[in-house]
Write a structure and sequence with these properties.
The complex is a heterodimer of chains A (about 270) and B (about 290). Chain A is mostly helical and about 270 residues long. Chain A contains 13 helices and three strands; from the N terminus they run ααααβααααααααββα. Chain A has a two-stranded antiparallel ribbon. The chains are: A mainly alpha (about 270), B mainly alpha (about 290). The interface between A and B is large, with 101 and 104 residues.
Chain lengths: ~270, ~290
């Protein structure tokens, strides 16, 4: 039995969420004259010219490629290092474990603005400036702690008896972890990947500071629509719409785990 | 769950330690270094002691930014938390509509921060934006570029638009974990809707609600990109929050010393709040979670 819910509340809220997005899509389908000179709720002259500008110009679409490269690198690194650590936190007590966990959490909470300039100098000095891996490593600052946190929550739900049985059956740690344990928390790994993807994808300050040409993310490329002849609103809107696509695809695949992941495995 | 005492677990934690130390400790030490030195460029540094810290503590500019920051975080928490709970209570619980709502609600969370800013910048403009145009047509004087109040409203509404779903999704996850028997018991006792909420749903949501409040507090406390894109911190300084002020100082004016001292104090505030968060959360876990 459930309490009654009112469909009106949800309808209004979803409408509130979608109207600004609709306006962006609407603008991306008009040309600049129509945007600036008239006010139309529905595009009068439907045009895909703005999208064509982006998808045929390497300096535009490479922005998307760059973003996706460093986001994927970051997700892989974060999960690879967070898996064993989360296992250690969920199964063992060891010297300084609570302090270490707290210290990790503080990194999730530290403002990127504080780190922007030192990161720039650090990565310049070791010759990684303007590479994808630099941004991926910088994003580890907040994604690794988050990954450890979420994975630990999921791993705690797996009974310890499973580990013990596997060891008795003669499994070594590595084989047990990959063959038995990881499949058990597969959904947790999926949720973690989603969150790493999301936070790396939406971040702008660090990725913009650490890149100039070769690894420039799409978010930074978008700023160039401001030119001497005024704003190129149509292209800007089209670029914005295209940044929504990867996110929307990812959400669709993990929709059943989203809520649980947001509670960081603690529900 | 009983855990085994085993110090060799450190080997499992080592990769995380190395990678986070690389991206957290080294930059932080750089900041500490700057905060106690003065420079005239070209890498000449002079010991400045605590001068920058004194400047930062007494600076009106930082006080104002901090005041605006606290006000902003307060306002958005006061709106997003009750609204998020309300939305979560009204979400369909299963089936196709539930999935659809989840997907649509999560959509704003996955938009890059500057695109969120762009969406609202376009949406709110009087000449080409739906919101600005409609308000102007209704005869309401709204212009976020020149009017501080309108700029504030725009930034707050944008944040509500962007992040209320996070609170709602968290509360939804909490509500899903309440067994149906609880509601049946409440029905037998003829409990009112309010007392069901007050004595069953709210206590069950306590854990996730705490996470929601603190995540929202932290993230709003370090907000940068969205208001920067929409208002650029203006008009005047009216929407210059802590991070915006910091970036203006560090990268715009290249005042490394003061900016670094400012960063460290900013970081200490965050650290203090994180500590409170962590303590409360571990206590909740010890009490048997939610």
């Amino acid at each position: 039995m459930r309490m009654k819910t009112s469909p009106w509340v949800m309808t209004l809220y979803i409408l509130f969420l979608l109207v600004p997005i609709y306006w962006l899509v609407n603008m991306s389908l008009k040309d600049n004259t129509e945007i600036t000179s008239t006010f139309t709720i529905i595009p009068r002259h439907l045009t895909f010219e703005n999208y064509r500008t982006i998808l045929t110009d390497p300096s535009w679409y490479m922005g998307y490629v760059n973003s996706i490269i460093y986001v994927v690198e970051n997700t892989v690194i974060s999960i690879a290092v967070a898996l064993p650590a989360a296992y250690a936190f969920s199964r063992y007590t060891f010297m300084g474990d609570k302090h270490l966990f707290f210290w990790l959490l503080t990194n999730r909470m530290s403002p990127p603005a504080v780190f922007a300039l030192p990161f720039f100098q650090l990565y310049s000095s070791i010759g990684l400036f303007d590479t994808h891996i630099a941004v991926a490593l910088a994003h580890c600052l907040f994604n690794v702690p988050l990954a450890v946190w979420i994975l630990e929550g999921f791993m705690r739900g797996v009974p310890k008896e499973i580990d013990e049985t596997a060891y008795i059956d003669g499994y070594g740690f590595g084989r047990f972890f990959v063959r038995i344990f990881m499949p058990l928390i597969a959904s947790g790994i999926g949720v973690t990947a989603f969150f790493c993807f999301m936070f790396s994808w939406v971040e702008l300050l660090l990725s913009r500071t650490l890149t100039s040409v070769n690894a420039k993310p799409i978010a930074a490329v978008m700023t160039r629509t401001v030119s001497a002849s005024g704003m190129d609103w149509g292209v800007l809107a089209a670029a914005g719409v295209l940044t929504l696509v990867p996110g929307a695809l990812v959400i669709w695949f993990v929709r059943n785990y989203i809520a649980k992941g947001f509670a960081l495995g603690r529900v | 769950m009983d855990k085994i005492q085993n110090n060799r677990a450190w080997f499992l934690v080592l990769p995380v330690l190395v990678i986070v130390a690389f991206s957290a400790v080294i930059p932080l030490m750089t900041v500490v270094n700057y905060s106690v030195n003065d420079t005239f460029g070209s890498n000449d540094f002079f010991w400045a002691g605590l001068e920058w810290f004194q400047d930062a503590v007494t600076s009106d500019r930082i006080h104002e930014a901090l005041g605006r920051q606290v006000l902003f975080s307060g306002i958005i928490l006061a709106i997003e938390v009750p609204l998020g709970i309300f939305i979560a209570l009204n979400m369909p619980r299963q089936g196709f509509w539930s999935s659809l709502c989840l997907v649509l609600m999560a959509l704003p969370l996955l938009i890059p921060f500057n695109v969120v800013g762009t969406i609202w910048q376009i949406f709110g403009r009087v000449d080409i934006g739906l919101l600005g145009h409609t308000l102007a047509a209704l005869g309401i004087d709204y212009n976020y570029v020149s009017d501080p109040l309108a700029a504030w409203i725009t930034v707050v509404v944008m944040d509500v638009w962007h992040w209320t779903s996070l609170v709602a999704l968290l509360c939804y996850a909490g509500l899903q974990s309440i067994p149906g028997a609880f509601y049946q018991a409440a029905k037998i006792d003829q409990a009112s809707r309010w007392s069901v909420f007050r004595f069953i749903e709210l206590p069950k949501m306590r854990g996730v609600l705490l996470i929601a409040v603190l995540l929202r507090f932290m993230d709003s406390f370090m907000i940068y990109t969205e208001p920067f894109v929409v208002t650029g911190g203006g008009p005047g300084n009216s929407t210059t929050f802590l991070s915006i002020d910091l970036v203006k100082q560090a990268i715009g004016q290249f005042d490394l010393g003061p900016a670094a001292a400012f960063s460290i104090m900013y970081f200490l505030v965050i650290l203090l709040i994180s500590w409170v968060f962590y303590t409360v959360m571990t206590n909740l876990d010890r009490d048997g979670g939610n």
